[in-house]
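Work Package 3 (structural annotation) set out to generate three-dimensional models for the target panel prioritized at the project kickoff. During this period the team completed the workflow that converts sequence records into discrete structure tokens, so that structures can be stored uniformly alongside our sequence database. As a representative example, we reproduce one entry of 334 residues exactly as it appears in the project archive.
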Amino acid sequence: ALIEASSFISYLIDAYNMDNFRKFYNRATDLTFDQAFKEVYSKTLVQMEKEWLSFLDRYKPIEDDLKSLADRKVNYRYYSEAIDPYKDVLAVYAGYSEKNNILRIMNKLAGAYFSLGDYKGAQTYYGQMSLIDTLNPGDHFIMGNLYLLQGQKDSAQTEYLKAIKLDSNYASPWTKLGEILLGEGQLDKAKEDFEKAKKLNPSALDWVEIYSGLAKVYSEKKDTIKAQQNLYSALQYSNYYLSSEKTISANPYLKIGEIYLSLGAIDSALVPLKLAEFIEDRPAYLGEIYLKLGEAYQQKGEKDKAKAYFQQVLLLPSGLSEKNLAQERLKSVE
């Protein structure tokens, strides 16, 4: 209904100009709505609605309208409904050979597929983008993340190294390489990669990942003091990360919750994790959030809640790593 109302108002403004719309807006109340409409537009609301519907029947959408429609679908989280309009826009831009617009729409398409949990679909477009814009390290970094979600560590490492080759100051790929090595138990090599990331130009999120990674390294090495020092550094940067975000995002809350969980502060972890759950709807991130919520409730001894969250991880198209951990946690709960 909101989209239809917006379309109708746009038609009134475009067809009868903004001055008339302002007159109507200033005169209309709940009691005088129909009368004010007829006085300004010399037509009843029903007559105008028929005119608008007739206009829609004749109208052939151009690329800007299609893009606007798709963007609104994404904003309302109707990701699957955004894909066809974006593809239509892409076809138009391809006919014009407009490189920047093609890349922009491919990025939006990849984002829509990612939001649906279709990581291969997202990869298709990021792969094409990396071929069109061969100097963009960000495409290779995201490709690495998509490979990692699917458990393809070797391919992920290859993409991260491509990103580093294109930008030697890019910290994010080094943190991901460190996480992969950490998962394989190569603690010293993981530590080296986290330390390399430190010396570059880390973002607020990178700093959180660096210190969280180092905390895990020291925890595995049984160095409790250094592990806690790094966790507190990660917590400091996670709060900075939260304050620096320009839009409401679940990821800072997820990171804060993860750190409190690692510190053993379960109740303090649950608040940001539940906020992250409320905000997020993308399976890749929801899988991480549900896993951490399950771990928190498991530590509190609330087995039913823990099992429910671990099962949700398995039902979603979440990352392979999260699915494997959820299966392990379920066995330990039972």
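The chain is about 80% helix and 0% strand.
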